[in-house]
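Lines hold sequence, tokenised fold; shown next:
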Amino acid sequence: MNKILTLLALGVLSSNAIAASKGDTYTGFQYALGTYSEDGFPDTNPNAIVGRFGKYLKDDFSIEGRLGVGVGDDSATVSGIDVSIEIDTVFGVYGLKHVDIGNASSIYGALGFTRGELTASAPGISVSDDDSGLSFGVGVNFNNINIEFMQYLNKSDFDVSAISFGITF
């Protein structure tokens, strides 16, 4: 976590933030504090690092691709057995509508599509599964710093969401 905070601080100190314009591209990364919720199973909080790659199609609208990998699992006890949940991969494409709030800051809404894979492990067994679906979220950019809530998958029997903190260049 100290490495992440150091990278965030370096990003702020080295930023030369300007308003985005049509044709501008950006990259960045987020540390995603995930939540996996499933019917009949305690919530778990696996974490991931997510790379972001985007392009502004208009001054206030961008298309963004994301690719993430799990960096921390979480476990819960089910019927006396410890079950570990880990994010393997996350891939998505999203449209972001930005609203300028001044001083190189903005809020945005995101809507798109995510495909993700999780692994559940218990002593002697490991099962991976993938799913995909509609995703939506909201975020705030302060210069190069980003804070976001994203509902990556919202299915009838489970959902995956995350609160993320990151840097955008």
In short: The first helix runs from residue 2 to 14. The two ends are 20 Å apart (CA to CA). Helices lie at 2-14. The mean pLDDT is 88.
